[in-house]
Design brief:
The chain is α+β, with helices and mostly antiparallel strands. It contains three helices and nine strands, in the order βαββββαβαβββ. Strands 1, 2, 3, 4, 5, 6, 7, 8 and 9 form a nine-stranded mixed sheet that branches.
């Protein structure tokens, strides 16, 4: 089911400051901010040779990232994202094995314009896991 690691997502309290640190301190290539209102976040991708780091900032008070930052005010790792060839088949396989899919269970369009869904962290060793169809 899984292909490659697409990205590791870090929740940050200040997206501009985090992007600047990656760009200026680490010399990384950092993309432009992308607001994703349907997910309640603004994201920036840090491009690496073999994967990406996604920096997440809350977009509004009801953002799941706002709740995460309330518990982790300095930020931290939020989720990992793996690529899959067929997101519906992956979802159905996970559901068949008793895993929980967050939300209504239907894929939504993510930051890369592709279908994504999230697997409950309780079913993945405490790690929120995103699947992205490629």
């Amino acid at each position: 089911m899984l292909d490659r690691l697409n990205h590791v997502a870090l929740a940050v309290p200040d997206l501009d400051a985090a992007a600047r640190r990656y760009r200026e301190t680490l010399g990384a290539k950092v993309g432009a901010p992308q607001p994703l209102p349907e997910h309640g976040v603004t994201v920036v991708f840090v491009e690496l040779g073999n994967t990406k780091v996604e920096l997440l900032e809350p977009l509004g008070e009801n953002s799941p990232i706002a709740a995460f930052l309330a518990k982790n005010p300095k930020g931290g790792m939020h989720h990992v994202c793996y690529e899959v060839a067929d997101i519906v088949a992956a979802r159905d396989q996970l559901l068949g094995q008793g895993a929980r899919i967050l939300g209504d269970g239907e894929p939504k369009i993510g930051a890369h314009g592709r279908p994504v869904l999230f697997v409950h962290p309780g079913d993945m060793f405490g790690t929120l896991t995103e699947l992205e169809e490629v």
